[in-house]
Amino acid sequence: MSDAAVLSHFRKKHFWMASHVENAQYPTPESLQGLKCYQVAETEPKQVERAAVSAPVEGYSFYAVDCHPLMVRYARTLAQKWPEAEHAAMLEYLSQLSLTDIPTPDGINVALYVAMQSGKPVATGMIFSSTEENDVSVVGLYDIYGMTEEAERAIRGHLATLTDTEVLVSE
Asked: Taxonomically, which superkingdom (predicted)?
């Protein structure tokens, strides 16, 4: 997979994440601030072998974010990744994400996940895939965050099992 394909993929992910507030009719100042915090924290992904991603960890339940209550859990959990002073802005921004309100461009698929342990959200992750030049498919694991290292390994391992590619990109 070429560096150009990975960079194009990353730019598409960057654009998709920004579109939820930049294309909103009335974005709140807090959501715009949250977007800035998110963009500052983003790093270009690196290629990783799927086999190098940790295996799933027992004791967790994984849910695809497909409704508002799960989106709230996703936003609240992922917002914990940022310093406390930025939590409110990140929560405002992340709660604006939608998998249904804004059409996803052709060639792009996005899936958000929440890991739960004992009924509480403990980790988040995103699978973002895009079709690049020459029909090259790039699959990325993003927004991997766990309240503990084990929870982070669990969500990363779960997301890797959901992909069918041998080479992934990840932050």
From this structure: Bacteria
